[in-house]
Amino acid sequence: MKKILTIVLTSIITFNIMAQQKIIQTAGRDALGDFAPEFAHLNDDILFGEVWSRNDLLSLRDRSLVTITSLISQGITDSSLIYHLQEAKKNGITRTEAAEIITHIAFYAGWPKAWAAFKLAKDVWADETAASSAKEKFQQEMIFPIGEPNTAYAKYFIGNSYLAQISSEQIPFANVTFEPRCRNNWHIHKAEKGGGQMLVGVAGRGWYQEEGKPAVEILPGTVINIPANVKHWHGAAKDSWFAHLAFSVPGEDTENVWLEPVSDAEYDVLP
């Protein structure tokens, strides 16, 4: 029993160590290393190197939330708040969540402090605002919905994609939307008999490419017939949102096999 308990405890400790992300910070030494080396040490090695690194106990996202709440509540709107807003974004806090957090803080810390924080937050999340506007504009170009973030297959895509299931009966098909530069990994629709996929361009401009062949441009109305057991990829052009309908062709013993990403070197040669 003692041996089993030791093994279990060892496993838990190992898991926690593996789950930790060590935070490396040099801002203290960069700014104050010569003037206040002890303060620089406390900032870089203790605050970030130890406290922020205990993210197996409290996630980086939650630590960012606590930190920006504390700074805004004190009325601190200098470079330290800008830094922590940027880190909050990196740690997964969205533009919508940031706006809601600051609005909530306003009722407890004061309206002027929230106004000051909003001015900085707008700049930090400006790219998300622009992306949102571009997405809304693209939606107006097509009759099919963009749908929801394609989270189930996100690991097989570079960039953000969206999925809207149009029909799940008779012939199931979906509308897949790609932001500029987004593309899926090389993949194969395997089948013993039949199978494959058909794409129909809906809006924007995109690409389809089979291994060893030139890329084919997809525009609204373009039909791409993808044979089974052929390695290929498809996605948006560099400068355009893109959407296509995807139809799965019935077959026997069908399977989608996801492979390596399409590298920037492969993608960037396309116009």
Nutshell version of this structure?
The chain has 271 residues and is an alpha+beta fold.
Give a written overview of the molecule.
Helix 4 (60-73) packs antiparallel against helix 5, helix 4 packs parallel to helix 6 (95-109) and helix 5 crosses helix 7 (111-124). The termini are far apart. The protein has 9 helices and 15 strands. It has helices spanning 2-19, 27-32, 37-52, 60-73, 79-90, 95-109, 111-124, 126-139, 264-267; strands at 148-149, 157-158, 161-167, 173-178, 183-184, 187-190, 193-194, 197-204, 206-210, 216-218, 223-226, 232-236, 242-248, 251-252, 255-258. The relative contact order is 0.09. The protein folds into 2 domains: 7-128, AhpD-like, CATH 1.20.1290; 138-267, Jelly Rolls. With 271 residues, it is α+β, with helices and mostly antiparallel strands. The protein has a 6-stranded antiparallel beta sheet with strand order 1-3-4-13-8-11, with no helix packed on it. A 3-stranded antiparallel beta sheet has the order 10-9-12, with no helix packed on it.
